[in-house]
């Protein structure tokens, strides 16, 4: 570690370990309380075994099903509102997660992302599978920082683990029927219980149908931003003996929407052909969720999978085997330029399927030493068949792109924790990963005479070997307070961009993370306060860029280095039996250390003539940092619009989707009514200081805040009536901005939504 990195880490550690007294005045409340009114213990599986969250030397945010329900967080896109260190971007059929500023914005098929998503121990190898409508959730664990040993697979920034419910010893039926604005119907149901004393089964169903759009497409006179989602998940749990448990699970989802593809030209910019963002062709103002698209955008996804989990108590250790098969198909069509002219359209059919197998052995014997070891295998296949068309390709009619990528990943890992003393615990782990890629892809020009010959990428095979590791030291100060130090190495393999098959493959990304943390439970477990400070050194950071790709496509580049410094705060408290508060904050400084080959897009033109009669001229600076526009000049100031590309150095600029400050604060209060009834009041506030979408920092999201709330009356424990609202102040913000040769387009986040639910539980 460099001297400057050491200084930064010590400074951050000093803030994080300054002690709970500095934050004890913060009003915070737990998501759950025990019988005495204090905070209940939260048990997590962050280290592949059940442990108290407070004993794990990892920064973990655990969100229970009740906290999700009470605060209106029912999809992956809402998770950042309750976990500030997480950012989520939706791009087409893909969900892109950032944890502590680390992630990838390349949403093309075949990209796995820099933060791993697991559901019940099964890795989601396709980005479309990260878009989840929560239903039968027990809890969600967010592991912050690289998890390169026990999980390993592409967990360079962190990991999201969704744990679903299992059928219990008694039959359970609960659910929700709801109606909201935009003519939206929601229905959820869960039923589960024992068939025999050794066999249990459950079924969870989810349905959302939104008939009215968030906005209007004025060009096509059609609704913009609509969704139709349906899903089912089931588990069969068999316990033939007290020492053996077998879980057979399956899930199926269908999603039809244009929530992410209903683009409009970014307000304040000019697209090609003089199309002005935020306005109709006649100059009238557009609503934030309206569009002028000449082609109707559409995404149709089908996702399904099956898995089998075997757990066996061998006496000295627990054996766990997880086998899974998953498949995704996607048909999408969208108007990339965002305007009423037929400049750039993409139609594509993509898919992915994966097979995975993991076997773990974890010690169960008492003593100062605990250990576990395992092996992991993943085979993943991704296919892409895309047709690009529009006047932007003139004199061509367009391009046809086909690409297939097969990946095989093999890993072996081991980790052990030794209690040096009853209060001092040392953890060490190591993982060896071998990734192999087999690629076949190319593109062909399409003219009036037909499709030309396919030009293929001559580079077809990649292979990477990497050793990652982890070391952590935890010191218990009291039974309720401990501190820890850790160092971790994470790895994400290099690959190909299936939307730009002729580009060279990008290099692997590695991250070395240093962290210091404090975990505490105070005032008879009325307050839980956890802090962490961290520094990351990232090599060959994988960054999406449209500037170096074919028109409308994207490609992944490697920034030489990225430096990340940050502080996380998570707190919960239970000052009274009925009042619960919780929240957190993340302070983040994530910048490119060295990135000399980035492409930047600049608005064309500046509207004044440089020299009378001069044709278009551009001047590109060598250093793009802080440059707003190097200057594009047209004769007589004719605003033809569009963008042009400069290449230069963006070293020192902030990285993508890495806001300087994010925070959330939630509260829930229950008022007893009569002998069996109650009224529950819940609210959630989240703040984001703003961030950039691309390396050049030109496409930005300014600061914004979201407020959710709900009121539920339960005359009896079995049923209740709920009024809810999300984004109560109708905040206008973007979840995605993408630049191309035709301009910058933006996809708007959800507007104010509200409705009524009937909740039931038997």
From TrEMBL:
Pfam families: Plug (PF07715), TonB_dep_Rec_b-barrel (PF00593). The keyword Transport applies. Coiled coil: none annotated. Residues 250-727 form the TonB-dependent receptor-like beta-barrel domain. Residues 53-158 form the TonB-dependent receptor plug domain. It comes from the Bacteria. CDD domains: ligand_gated_channel. It is a multi-pass membrane protein. SUPFAM superfamilies: Porins. Residues 1-24 form the signal peptide. A motif (TonB C-terminal box) lies at residues 745-762. The keyword rRNA-binding does not apply. Its main location: membrane. Belongs to the TonB-dependent receptor family. This is TonB-dependent receptor. It comes from Novosphingobium album (ex Liu et al. 2023).
